[in-house]
Amino acid sequence: MTAQEPAGQRWRDTAARPDTVLIDGFHALKHTLRFGGQVHQVLTTDRSALAALAEGLAADVAAPVLAAAVEVPAAVLRELVPRPHPTGVAALAVRPDPARTLARLRETPRRAPVVLLDNPRNLGNIGAVVRLAAGFGATGVVTTGDVDPWHPNVVRAGAGLHYATAVARLDLPDLPPGPLYALDPEGADIRSVVFPDDALLVFGSERHGVSAALRERATRLVAIPMQPQVSSFNLATSVGMGLFHWMAHTTSPVVPAITPPR
Predict the structure, then answer these.
(1) Which of 3, 13, 44, 78 has the most CB atoms around it within 10 Å of its CB?
(2) pLDDT single digits (tens) 162-214
(3) For 98-249, which CATH class?
(4) Residue 5 pLDDT > 80
């Protein structure tokens, strides 16, 4: 048995657990560790290259990255991870406890909005929204519908920043408290509205928009001005504009919802 075979078997066993998340690429790994994620295993095709990345781009987490890393041939990584990241790094981490995530989303008073994606379909867009939420210091990202916001492709697109905010899929009765501001073409011009810090900012899919159920529950419908004959903004772009509009008017300090461990 080679040194790689135990690592590969351990990977398969761990990946089969329901609370395991694939962390694909160095940048996703650094964010996972930086924001308190628990990592089971790290594989790399080039330990020296990984050391250079860690020391050059994320010295704060270089030690735990290298302590956990096991070098394997590229063929082994391709067998374990169908589409390896160009950095040649992959890891398995623990998905945060759903009950704790829900408690964080429901905690009041809230200093920053929750982004609510109503039945999103594009995995890359969901990941981009998670990155925006983390960057703006939003409390979290909630999705409705049947797409798991912790899907490996979403986590990849989110660069591991799921651990910097609170991310969950919820049914409508379980949504966090707070006034709902739904982005809708028939709404009031966003420039005339100020989003409160405890708002839920609701964004529908590019094709179908916000569902009737959420429109009925909305405290207010809000529209982002757009040139005639343009069908829609990209979902992540709309979220970015909505969060920037909130940040431009809030008096709360903009801080991450989840503070990295010191």
Answers:
(1) 44
(2) 999 999 999 999 999 999 999 998 999 999 999 999 999 999 987 778 999 99
(3) alpha beta
(4) no
Provide the token pair at 87. Answer: 């950095």
Is pLDDT above 80 for 247?
yes
155 φ, ψ (degrees, to nearest 5): -65, -40
- Pairing of β 166-169 and β 180-189: unpaired
Query: How far is it, in rounded angstroms, from Cα 262 to Cα 249?
Result: 30
Average pLDDT over residues 106-113: 94
Distance (Å, whole) CA 82 – CA 66: 23
C-alpha triplet 132, 137, 139: angle, nearest 5°: 100
Q: Which of 197, 214, 87 is nearest to 137 (CA)?
A: 197
- Look at residue 214 in the predicted model and tell me its pLDDT: 95
Domain with CATH 3.40.1280.10 in the chain: 98-249
What integer best gives the mean pLDDT of the chain?
Answer: 92
Q: Rounded to an integer, what distance in angstroms lies between the CA atom of residue 259 and that of residue 76?
A: 35
Instruction: Considering the chain, tell me which residue range(s) the CATH 3.30.1330.30 domain(s) occupy.
Output: 4-94
Q: At what angle do helices 47-57 and 26-34 cross, to 10 degrees?
A: 50
**Secondary structure of residue 92 in the 3-state scheme:** strand
The CATH H-level (homologous superfamily) assignment of domain 4-94 is Ribosomal protein L30/S12 (3.30.1330.30)
